[in-house]
Design goal:
Layout (H helix, E strand, L loop, with lengths): L4 E4 L7 H12 L6 E5 L8 E4 L5 H17 L5 E3 L5 H6 L7 H9 L7 E6 L2 E5 L13 H17 L7 E4 L15 H15 L3 E2 L5 H13 L8 E4 L2 H12 L4 E5 L4 E5 L16 H13 L1
Parallel strand pairs: 1-2, 1-4, 2-3, 4-11, 6-9, 7-8, 7-9
Antiparallel strand pairs: 5-6, 5-10, 10-11
Helix pairs in contact: 1-9, 2-4, 5-6, 7-8
Length: 295
């Protein structure tokens, strides 16, 4: 497969087009490595597939479909997506919780499932649940085992780590304090960890999120190697609050578990600064570089 990536320009009212233009001008990639999907960018001379649809939500959805079709045809090795508003998708009748779910629906084969990971340098955070209201979060042993197996496979195959070491956050404060503050660790998480160890996956006991990320953060800020090749977290803000506080401008949203890698900058559509030419393209640059590296 060619090392060619598709980059969508994202929400027409957001900063996606600006991010793509700035990032590609700075990276100066060979023309054969990139195809842009969405809006034409006059300052760039890359192959472009224009999506001539007026409705913003339909435009965003069609851009993703085109990228997925290129991947299924073997014409690209990775997808980089610019930010899209979930409300814009919903208003157009595309009821997905995010771009990850759209891409999963169009690219999954057999038992493939998308997982959401955030990467900056050797800090990798994978979400065990994604865009779910806090009151609706449900975990079970089978789900944890399945997702950690998928994570372990990604670390071995894509990151070339022979024996990955995985950390995992507890769900409850103080890891449940022996059942006083919740018993999910005792009934669900620890049994899942034991099952994973039985199939020779190197995963530590669940740690309270605050103490685990205190160590992670210290190492990241001191440019020291992380203790874990990846950390699994139970829900969205448990991981995202920490990693965005540490590295908002550099962290990359990465979809794993499918036929191709998908990456995206960490921020959103930023309607408030759209058209002002002040958006920081650092995370988009990192997303493009990571897509090429992992593909």
């Amino acid at each position: 497969m060619n090392k060619k990536i598709a980059i969508t320009t994202g929400d027409k009212k957001g900063i996606g087009k600006e991010l793509v233009e700035k990032a590609l001008l700075k990276l100066n990639l060979p023309k054969e490595n990139v195809v842009i999907i969405g809006e034409k960018i006059d300052a760039l001379n890359y192959e472009t597939i224009e999506i001539k649809i007026e409705n913003n939500g339909d435009f965003c959805f069609e851009s993703l479909k085109v990228a997925c079709n290129l991947a299924k045809e073997g014409k690209i090795s990775a997808i980089v997506t610019s930010p899209v508003s979930k409300k814009v998708l919903h208003d157009a009748g595309h009821f997905y919780n995010g771009q990850t779910e759209v891409i999963e629906e169009h690219l999954k084969k057999d038992k493939d499932k998308a997982e959401m990971m955030f990467i900056t340098n050797d800090l990798r955070i994978m979400l065990l649940t994604r865009h779910v209201a806090l009151k609706d979060i449900k975990i079970n042993k089978e789900m944890i085992v399945e997702k950690i197996i998928r994570l372990n496979k990604f670390l071995k195959e894509k990151c070339k780590i022979e024996k990955p070491k995985i950390g995992i956050c507890a769900l409850n404060p103080h890891a449940g304090e022996n059942g006083i503050l919740g018993d999910e660790e005792i009934k669900i998480i620890n049994p899942a960890i034991n099952e994973l160890r039985n199939i020779e996956i190197d995963i530590e006991d669940a740690k309270p999120a605050d103490s685990l990320f205190a160590k992670v953060g210290k190492k990241y800020l001191n440019n020291e190697k992380q203790d874990y090749d990846a950390v699994a977290v139970m829900y969205h803000d448990q991981g995202l609050t920490a990693v965005k506080a540490l590295a908002f401008d550099k962290v990359v949203n990465t979809t794993i578990g499918l036929k191709v890698i998908r990456t995206s900058p960490s921020g959103g559509t930023a309607y408030d600064i759209a058209g002002k030419n002040i958006a920081d393209s650092t995370s988009m640059q990192e997303a493009i570089k990571l897509a090429l590296e992992l593909s």
